[in-house]
Design goal:
By secondary structure, the chain is mostly helical. Helix content is 55%, strand content 6%. The protein folds into four domains: 81 residues, no CATH class; 86 residues, DNA polymerase, domain 1 (Orthogonal Bundle), CATH 1.10.150; 154 residues, hpI Integrase, Chain A; 51 residues, no CATH class.
């Protein structure tokens, strides 16, 4: 016996229909609409439920526990399983995670990690995904959502934004809001090769020599110490020890950026500009900023004009760190010392960024000079031994063995 179709009929001002039931006898219920086309669509939806065997939902529609219009809307939005699950388990509690952003900010401030600049950058990134005062349900906090957000940024590398989202996700885990970190499931983008633009000593001298005033002192300090802009602009007179050539660098990017920086003999020509300025300002307030009155634009403009005069292209204020680091490595300073000077986490990071410089002739000349000195020393000792043999003098076998080893090493 063929099943009867579900046909809407007008009852009062709205349409009704017989809700299919397993017994075959339908139960008349209002479809909640006065539009005949909508009523026909809901009726076809009820027949589809019967064909699919969704008797639980049909029973709820028949006894009035569920609304045909709401069930049809859920079906249209491809959300019917969630609607049925709600009927079975009660209303689903929607967790809005947007208010947790402020709690996350407060927690980062409380534990003082990460550093202020990094924290502000984290918050700026996350706020592009979770705007303030706009509800963001927890069910949307998924790998798909985060990946779509990162892709929509339209930038080459999104690893910093991914790290920001991961930090917020970890806070949600600590607050027992969720159990997983979807940001970590997103594949990291390939980082661009680190910038390593640097100047030779002669170029650095020429650039700083083409400047004047406080900007000249600023760039001389950065060249002599590899100090970054944030730390240089925070430098106070009381932080600088002219006699020892050291200063307290109050960097804020990471906790390691707060360190003691020093200059060494290679950069004594640049340090003299700093010493001269400190000597001329002996009467200044020791808590005053060294570069008070020098804005970032004035500092940048001075370097740009000097480089343009000398025909040097693509050199930025931050590149003084590259210049200092490459020179330090060429001067054979230990990597740990270079890392501490720059405020890096460890020497691995220093080697990854600054260790890949292109060797210059001077590097090989220094090694060649050392080898030639060893060979000359070995040749002199062999000559002395030949004379001793010719004169019949006793020979020190330990000296002979040492000479033989040095000669073998020189040949290898």
């Amino acid at each position: 016996m063929p099943r009867r179709s579900v046909t809407p009929f007008l009852r009062g001002r709205t349409y009704s229909a017989l809700i299919p039931r397993p017994s075959g006898r339908g139960k008349g219920r209002s479809l909640g609409t006065a539009d005949v086309k909508t009523a026909e669509k809901i009726s076809r939806f009820l027949m589809w439920l019967r064909e699919q065997g969704e008797w639980y939902l049909l029973d709820k529609l028949a006894d009035g526990s569920a609304n045909p219009t709401e069930a049809f809307a859920a079906h249209t939005l491809v959300n019917l399983p969630t609607y049925i699950q709600t009927l079975k388990n009660g209303p689903i509690v929607v967790v809005d995670i947007e208010p947790y952003v402020k709690k996350w900010i407060a927690e980062m401030k409380r534990i003082r990690s990460p550093a202020d600049d990094t924290r502000k950058r984290y918050v700026g990134h996350v706020r592009t995904l979770l705007p303030e005062c706009v509800p963001f349900p927890l069910e949307r906090w998924t790998k798909k959502t985060i990946r779509g957000w990162l892709t929509g940024l339209g930038i080459d590398s999104t690893n910093r934004q991914r790290a920001s989202a991961s930090s917020f996700a970890q806070f949600l885990i600590d607050e027992d809001v969720c159990e997983h970190n979807p940001a970590r499931a997103v594949t990291m983008s390939r980082e661009a090769d680190p910038r390593r633009r640097y100047l030779s000593q002669d170029e650095a001298k020429a650039v700083i020599g083409a400047m004047s005033g406080l900007a000249k002192v600023y760039h001389a300090l950065c060249a002599a110490t590899g100090m970054e802009k944030q730390a240089a602009f925070r430098l106070r007179y009381c932080d600088v020890d002219v006699c020892s050539g050291t200063m307290l660098a109050d960097g804020k990017k990471t906790t390691g950026r707060a360190r003691t920086a020093a200059q060494y003999r290679r950069w004594s020509w640049a340090w003299t500009h700093v010493v001269s300025h400190m000597t001329q300002t002996l009467g200044a307030d020791r808590n005053a900023l060294v570069f008070e009155g020098l804005g970032e634009w004035g500092m940048y403009r001075a370097l740009k004009d000097a480089c343009a005069t000398l025909g040097i292209e693509d050199y930025h204020p931050h590149d003084w760190r590259h210049t200092w680091a490459v020179q330090a490595i060429r001067d054979s300073l230990p990597l740990n010392t270079v890392a501490a000077q720059l405020g890096h986490k460890d020497a691995v990071m220093t080697l990854r960024i600054y260790g890949k410089f292109v060797p210059v002739a001077a590097d090989f000349e220094r090694v060649n000079a050392a080898i030639e000195a060893e060979e000359a020393r070995a040749a002199g000792m062999l000559s002395a031994l030949d004379q001793a043999i010719a004169q019949g003098k006793p020979i020190d076998l330990s000296v002979l063995e040492c000479t033989r080893l040095e000669t073998d090493c020189g040949k290898s």
